[in-house]
Amino acid sequence: MRFIKTPLNDAQVIELEKRGDDRGFFARFFCINEFDQAGLRRDVVQINNSTSRDKGTLRGMHYQLAPKAEDKIVRCIRGALLDVIVDLRPESSTFLQHFKIELTADNRTALYVPKGFAHGFLTLADDTEAFYLVTEFYAPAQERGLRYNDPKLAIDWPFEPIVISEKDLKWRDFNPAYHLGQLE
Questions:
Q1: Under the phi-then-psi rule, with left for phi > 0, alpha for psi from -120 to 50, and beta for the rest, what region is 60?
Q2: Does domain 43-179 correspond to CATH entry 2.60.120.10?
Q3: 13 - beta bridge partners?
Q4: What is the DSSP secondary-structure string of the chain?
Q5: Cα end-to-end span (Å), the chain
Q6: Is 132 annotated as catalytic?
Q7: Mean pLDDT of 97-120
Q8: pTM recorded for the entire structure
Q9: φ/ψ bin of 127: left (φ > 0), alpha (ψ from -120 to 50), beta (otherwise)
Q10: Are 143 and 27 a contacting pair, CB within 8 Å?
């Protein structure tokens, strides 16, 4: 695996190092030793799989508050999606900045999303499937989200989402007291 730093502190793109022959290729998607060497958290407790039937489906922007904040490793295994993360760590020099990357079944690229980041994606093709590893169990009481079109975030989506859950439509605009866990 190759770990490539993003413009946001601690978030990294993970590229597979393929070893191939006339049968195809082999590559590691996850290796505790390589994650340790890269200084990344690797204590995965849950593996999630989501499918989205329609191009233009938006899922996000989700995260969990401490002590249930989670790191994620996200990969698209069918179709294509635009993966977007937002740094919500007030002490970070990249606080409230976002990064986006196209993850596809063909490019086999993954994104390491550190705890303290909101995460979401927009599907770029019908029948898109995402696969992600997380380092904390789902904790509904610690769950938070940001509105995908919050003007403070200024995320430039490639097109307006078509399918969004009621829950994701109702997230609040960024408010530090609420989004950082000081206010319910």
A1: left
A2: yes
A3: 4, 111
A4: -EEEE-SSTT-EEEE---EEETTEEE--S--HHHHHHTT------EEEEEEESSTTEEEEEEEE-TTS---EEEEEEESEEEEEEEE--TTSTTTT-EEEEEEETTT--EEEE-TTEEEEEEESSSSEEEEEEESS---GGGEEE--TT-TTT----SS--SEE-HHHHTPPPP-HHHHTTS--
A5: 40
A6: yes
A7: 97
A8: 0.92
A9: left
A10: no
Q: For residue 122, which of 48, 56, 54, 49 has the smallest C-alpha distance?
A: 56
Tokens encoding 104 = 């596809």
User: For position 184, what pLDDT does the model report?
Assistant: 61
Q: What pLDDT score was predicted for residue 103? A: 98
Identify the residue with better confidence: 43 or 182.
43
17-42, pLDDT tens digit by residue? Answer: 888 889 888 888 888 899 889 888 77
Q: CB–CB of 77/131 below 8 Å?
A: yes
Of 63, 112, 132, 148, catalytic: 132
Position 178 scores a pLDDT of 84
Taking alpha carbons only, the member of 124, 129, 130, 133 closest to residue 161 is 124
∠ CA 138-145-114, rounded to 5°: 65
Catalytic residue among 62, 98, 119, 179: 62
Task: Compute the average pLDDT of residues 138-143.
Answer: 95
Average pLDDT value over all residues in the chain: 94
CA distance 95 to 86: 8
